[in-house]
């Protein structure tokens, strides 16, 4: 970022400095450190008793920037709530619209829906709504739309009804949207405003009428005036479509809004739509892409000199053509609400066909036009245009049907899926024949990218054919990978990552009954199989088994046994995924794991690399003690395998390490302490020297480790790398405790254990009391007793006993023994 401050647009020097630090950071972790330090600095500034509104506004803007720029998930919910009171003050006492806007914006972005300070906004919003200044009214209405809640309704609803009749269209439009936002908490507001909505539908300003259309789509069917509103909307469509080619381009978006409202209300009148199909056809022919000028680069200069007015006209027509596409699609979507018999009878009576009006899009070379044609065709029943019955002939000729079939091999996956949907509705046998042919013709010389692309295309077919049958979809998935193994040869290809992602995402986005049926089918086929399965299929099964083992009726011990049968025969990548899934399944086994599983994992470990050995060690250790696995299942953010492994890794990292292995410093300190004597004279105690450096408000992360600070424990486990590096380089002792520092060479480590064995109760009490003054020593734990007990309890082979305050020699307190 080489932009100088004068040209940066920053609000202040502090704003410029933090943006510059973030933009020039070498990594996201370094940027997060700068942002965390800035948040702490702003917190100190806002705590100053003499803070003025200008400084408050600057701090809030920087906080908004930090909240948007920091890595997602690093800030806990409510972490910036300390600034909400200042935002409320700025919204209330701000002298300019800009000041109040910052206060309102901060509240709408940071304040939660259940926050108690929302009540403080009621009077502020009400006063701004009653102000005579139009900018303040618009600002209050914008804030009301985003901050709507039930507490605001009694205070502002009467004023909102008055603002619906305001002279300025900007106020009327926002008042309609604000009333609609409040109606989510009190639906009766919709009924009370129906008369006003009818007036606003006739508003001369299109933006106000568009807001009224949005409001009208929410009116319940039980309202007695709903029928009148439906008629008004249909009349609006009639008036706009009749003059479509004469209408100003500024109102074409308004036609789209009308069509969307009719679709939402499901009340479109067929006669209004059919009667203007010819108008649309003529208009489409007038501005078709073939009429547009296409010039080579070498001809641009000559054309610009000779035909500039014509180019501008054609550019306007091309721009208008895109609006016409949206209007055509909106009309065909309204056709989908009608029965095929009704639509066909109207077409016959008027001598037109809706599909013939758009046949020109099929022959276009523009993929957008082709996709629009398929989208319109999808809205209609095949009976109307495909000739599925003898009574109604087909609209498309043989060449046009062939053109549609070519879209099955289109490079764009959306066009392929759209074509499959249309053909499956005509006759499912067409898609079945295409699937069989494609399955039998898998090329053998494809690269890994080619294999990925081909299998993904194959997986799209059962995704269309069996989107309601999870069991059949699972069987087709196994069939595809089995055929792939046959065609390419066993072990001749690697894991297809794109195919794994397609299957897992498709299953996850389906409904619950589909997911359960599909996963149960896949795992059952895996358990029943006595042969080595395809690697990609094994990765899919592993991920699904780990995610759904807690809800399936298949016993987890049976799944573990199936994974262990051929575990040593797979590649390390597949072994890693399988053992990770076995870790998750073992959490539901309650420690009852078969010896065959243990021996299989042990056998894999003998000839594996370091990573697989570590994964095997994890399984062998947790197969005896399953408590950490159950804790990881509880703490995982979702049931997926990656989230489970992340939670397990985080729990392992939080466990206290032994002094000999935690760090070189701690190990050396332990060695010195165990000897009992120093090999040289200790340094004199350093004298406290006042620092000549004045701390800047936005200086550092110097107190990240203090209470209520930005610590790793206060962050969710979304980015472990960021969280673990956020505290690096932080001084261990604040400057205010300078005089309490001890010479670390002469100070025994509190972790040094007695080589002669344990001590009795009285001796332990004396040692415990002797360490009470050493809480600032390096390596000493200053956590609460409950936290220490939890961390020690997670250590293997460590038994924790809490001695209450009623027992000697610890009367009056609780200690960990």
Automatic annotation (TrEMBL):
Gene3D superfamilies: Leucine-rich Repeat Variant (1.25.10.10). Residues 657-669 have a biased composition (Low complexity). Coiled coil: none annotated. GO terms for cellular component: endomembrane system; membrane coat. GO terms for biological process: intracellular protein transport; vesicle-mediated transport. The keyword Cell membrane does not apply. It is found in: Endomembrane system. Residues 651-680 are annotated as: Disordered. Its main location: membrane. Transmembrane segments: none annotated. Keywords: Membrane, Protein transport, Transport. Residues 96-263 form the Clathrin/coatomer adaptor adaptin-like N-terminal domain. PANTHER family: ADAPTIN, ALPHA/GAMMA/EPSILON (PTHR22780). This is Predicted protein.
């Amino acid at each position: 970022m080489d932009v100088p401050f004068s040209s940066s647009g920053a609000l202040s020097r502090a704003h410029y400095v933090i943006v510059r630090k973030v933009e020039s950071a070498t990594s996201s972790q370094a940027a997060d450190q700068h942002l965390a330090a800035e948040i702490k600095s702003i917190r100190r500034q806002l705590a100053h008793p003499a803070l003025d509104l200008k400084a408050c506004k600057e701090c809030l803007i920087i906080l908004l920037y930090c909240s948007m720029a920091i890595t997602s998930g690093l800030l806990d919910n409510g972490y910036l709530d300390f600034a909400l009171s200042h935002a409320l003050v700025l919204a209330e006492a701000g002298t300019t619209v800009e000041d109040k806007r910052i206060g309102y914006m901060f509240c709408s972005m940071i304040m939660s829906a259940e926050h108690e300070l929302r009540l403080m906004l009621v009077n502020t919003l009400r006063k701004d709504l009653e102000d005579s200044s139009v900018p303040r009214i618009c600002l209050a209405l914008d804030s009301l739309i985003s901050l709507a809640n039930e507490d605001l309704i009694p205070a502002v609803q009467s004023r909102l009804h008055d603002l619906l009749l305001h002279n300025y269209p900007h106020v009327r439009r926002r008042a309609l949207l604000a009333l609609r936002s409040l109606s989510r908490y009190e639906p009766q507001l919709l009924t009370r405003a129906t008369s006003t909505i009818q007036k606003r539908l006739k508003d001369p300003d299109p933006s106000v009428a568009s807001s009224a259309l949005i409001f009208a789509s929410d009116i319940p069917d039980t309202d007695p005036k709903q029928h009148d509103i439906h008629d008004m909307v249909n009349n609006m469509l009639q008036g706009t479509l009749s003059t479509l080619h004469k209408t100003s381009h500024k109102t074409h978006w308004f036609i789209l809004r009308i069509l969307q409202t009719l679709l939402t209300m499901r009340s479109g009148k067929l006669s209004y739509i059919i009667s203007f199909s010819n108008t649309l056809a003529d208009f489409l022919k007038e501005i078709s892409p073939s009429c547009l000028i296409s010039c080579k680069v070498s001809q641009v200069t000559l054309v610009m000199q000779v035909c500039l007015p014509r180019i501008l006209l054609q550019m306007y027509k091309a721009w208008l053509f895109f609006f016409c596409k949206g209007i055509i699609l909106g009309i065909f979507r309204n056709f989908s609400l009608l029965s095929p018999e009704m639509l066909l009878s109207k077409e016959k009576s008027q001598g037109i066909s809706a599909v013939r009006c758009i046949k020109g899009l099929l022959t276009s070379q523009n993929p957008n036009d082709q996709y629009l044609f398929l989208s319109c065709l999808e809205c209609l029943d095949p009976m109307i245009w495909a000739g599925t019955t003898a009574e109604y002939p087909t609209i498309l000729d043989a060449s046009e049907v062939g053109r549609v079939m070519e879209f099955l091999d289109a490079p764009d996956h959306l066009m392929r899926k759209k074509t499959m949907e249309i053909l499956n509705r005509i006759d499912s046998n067409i898609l079945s024949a295409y699937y069989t042919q494609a399955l039998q013709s898998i090329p053998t010389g494809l690269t890994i990218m080619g294999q990925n692309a081909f299998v993904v295309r194959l997986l799209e077919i059962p995704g269309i054919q069996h989107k309601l049958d999870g069991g059949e979809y699972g069987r087709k998935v196994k069939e595809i990978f089995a055929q792939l193994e046959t065609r390419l040869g066993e072990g001749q290809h690697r894991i297809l990552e794109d195919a794994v992602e397609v299957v897992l995402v498709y299953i996850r986005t389906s409904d619950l009954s589909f997911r359960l049926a599909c996963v149960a089918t896949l795992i059952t086929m895996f358990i029943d199989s006595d042969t080595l399965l395809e690697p990609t299929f094994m990765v899919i099964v592993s991920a699904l088994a780990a995610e759904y083992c807690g809800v399936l009726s298949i016993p987890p011990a049976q799944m573990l046994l199936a994974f262990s049968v051929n575990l040593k025969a797979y590649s390390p990548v597949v072994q890693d995924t399988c053992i990770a899934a076995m870790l998750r399944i073992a959490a539901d086994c309650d420690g009852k794991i078969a010896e065959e599983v243990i021996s299989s994992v042990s056998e894999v470990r003998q000839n594996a690399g370091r990573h697989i050995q570590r994964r095997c060690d994890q399984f062998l250790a947790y197969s005896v003690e399953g408590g950490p696995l159950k804790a990881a299942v509880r703490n995982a953010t979702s049931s997926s395998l990656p989230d489970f492994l992340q939670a397990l890794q985080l729990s392992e990292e939080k466990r206290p390490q032994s002094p000999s292995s935690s760090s070189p410093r701690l190990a050396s300190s332990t060695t010195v302490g165990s000897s009992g004597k120093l090999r040289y004279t200790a340094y004199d105690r350093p004298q406290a020297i006042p620092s000549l450096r004045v701390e800047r408000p936005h200086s550092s992360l110097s107190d990240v480790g203090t209470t209520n600070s930005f610590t790793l424990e206060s962050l969710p486990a979304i980015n472990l790398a960021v969280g673990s590096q956020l505290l690096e380089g932080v001084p261990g002792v604040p400057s205010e405790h300078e005089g309490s520092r001890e010479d670390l060479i002469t100070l025994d480590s509190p972790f040094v254990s007695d080589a002669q064995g344990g001590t009795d109760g009285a001796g332990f009490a004396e040692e415990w009391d002797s360490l009470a003054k050493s809480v600032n020593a390096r390596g000493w734990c200053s956590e609460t007793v409950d936290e220490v007990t939890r961390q020690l309890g997670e250590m293997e082979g460590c038994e924790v006993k809490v001695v209450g305050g009623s027992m000697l020699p610890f009367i009056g307190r609780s200690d960990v023994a």
